[in-house]
Amino acid sequence: RSKLLLATFAIGLFDRAIMSLIKAHARQETAEKKLSAALKSTGNAVRISHKELTLMASGLQSVTKFGDEAIIEAQALMLTFTNIGKEVFPDTMEAVLNLSEALGQDLQQTVIQVGKALNDPVKGMTALRRVGIQFSKEQENQIKHFSNLNDAASAQKVILEELERQFGNMAIASRKTLAGSFAALSNSWGDMMEEMGEVLAPFMLSLSTSLKEITSLMKS
After folding, report:
1. What is the pTM of this model?
2. Cβ contacts of 7-10, under 8 Å, gap ≥ 24
3. Taking Cα atoms as reference points, which of 110, 105, 127, 117 lies closest to residue 75?
4. pLDDT tens figures, 93-123
């Protein structure tokens, strides 16, 4: 009986370990699928490739506490704001990470705030004021001037420059703390689990199919 209990316990631990690896890979895979879907649905309005975006996410993970899968999910959501072009998209994602860190809120919430602000810069100033981000009269006039000229990128840059002035390097500074070091370690461990899960996923899928066939035969 004791040996049976030990064996059952060991099998349970093995099962949980394997499932953790599979889930880690599944989240990364899901995030990248969302990114692909967003690029397709928007006709790649941002003019940045899937590979460039995932490399951007990996680079941001290396200097912040945010995992690349969370950043990729944020990128996918930001792509839905189709007035944000290639020239400002990288700075936009950095602003999202900095603002999330400064305000202590999740990336999705910040993406919506920043995305709406940049998608319509004139209205965006009002929206950002609600979370404490102020613009000078000169900045307001610049944004309105560029918007009247249909120069969205220049208007967006005025907003991004102010976000950088108020919150620049917040995410990087947080990464350099003890808590940030633990988060970075967790992200690195997660990356390793994702790779192991990717290797195991086909085997587990095949095993699941075989077990279903065996169960079906036993019932017949």
Report:
1. 0.74
2. none
3. 110
4. 999 999 999 999 999 999 999 999 999 999 8
